[in-house]
Amino acid sequence: MIDSALLLAILSAFCFGAGMITSRIGLRHLDARSGAALSIPAAALLFVIAAPFTIELSAFNLTAALIFAAVGLFYPALVTLLTFRSNTELGPTITSAISGTAPLFAMLAAALWLDERVPPQAAIAAVAVAAGVALLSWRPDAALDRIAGGKLFWPVAGAFVRGVAQAGAKAGLLLWGNPFAASVIGYLVSSTAVISAERLRHGGRRTLNRQGLQWFAITGFINGSAMVLMYAALARAPVSSVAPIIAAYPLVTVLGSALFLRGEPLNRRIVAGAVITVAAIVWLATYRTN
């Protein structure tokens, strides 16, 4: 079971990373908040279509459904909005670097709420992943002087919500172990939240265009797949085994951007970050399968 969970978590991280690449292409045609109001409902629509084939109502658990709905209000909806604000205030460099701390919050929440024992090896792996992601994401010309006042609240809050949401999803999956049910309920709530936020905001909109619609629809399908895979992994393994692997998705984003989007060329810093991140995941996988 643990082996399959690790594979699902790796596939989830790959999809999350790929979704970041497609969203960057989409941002050439549409702003981030409008893109979120397209991508999340697109994934929700896919889940609704698949629901009759993937969810057995006879296994329905009201408490689990309420937990999935609560998680959906925060993730991906609130996380998307917090990331948007963090990118605006601090830029993508600092935002991405701090996002790597999410598994630390996830493991702490799992220990407090679910009485999960966090093995020292898992904690060390999570710290190593956070360090590797920071190296991957960091840019020498990052504007450190922008870290002032309460601006760090936005990326830290995003990492906190992302991590706590994973522990919350695990709590629901312990009662109703259907990752598709968790996804469809969560995404329906998230869709309502992001569409409401889009309708309430003033200014900053761009006219919808075919390219933006296409790329953010693709992003929604990829991120939706990532979410199902993550929930499937959480249904099979402790949060401490899954969260550090999910947090490694920037590795896919950075390498994919360098190879396919002609982004920043590979250099020693990126290679070092990739080596640290991969080594941490391999070590965690080796430990869990022993």
Q: How would you sum up this structure in a few lines?
A:
With 290 residues, this protein is mainly α. The chain is built from twelve helices and no strands.
Structural description of this entry:
The structure is a single chain. This protein is an all-alpha fold. The chain has one domain. It contains twelve helices and no strands. Helix 1 (2-26) packs across helix 11 (249-260) and helix 3 (62-90) runs antiparallel to helix 4 (92-99). It is globular and about 55 Å long. The chain starts with a helix and ends with a helix. The model has no long low-confidence stretch (mean pLDDT 86).
Pairing-aware structural class of the strands and helices?
mainly alpha
> Total number of β-strand segments?
0
Cα-to-Cα separation, first versus last residue: 13 Å
Provide a count of the helices. Answer: 12
Number of domains: 1
Report the C-alpha radius of gyration, rounded. Answer: 18 Å
Residue ranges: pLDDT <50 for 5 or more in a row?
A: none
Q: What is the succession of H and E elements?
A: HHHHHHHHHHHH
Q: For the residues shown, what is the average pLDDT? A: 86
Helix content: over 70%
The fraction of residues assigned to DSSP E strands is: under 5%
**What sort of overall outline do the alpha carbons produce when their principal axes are compared?**
globular
Largest sheet: none
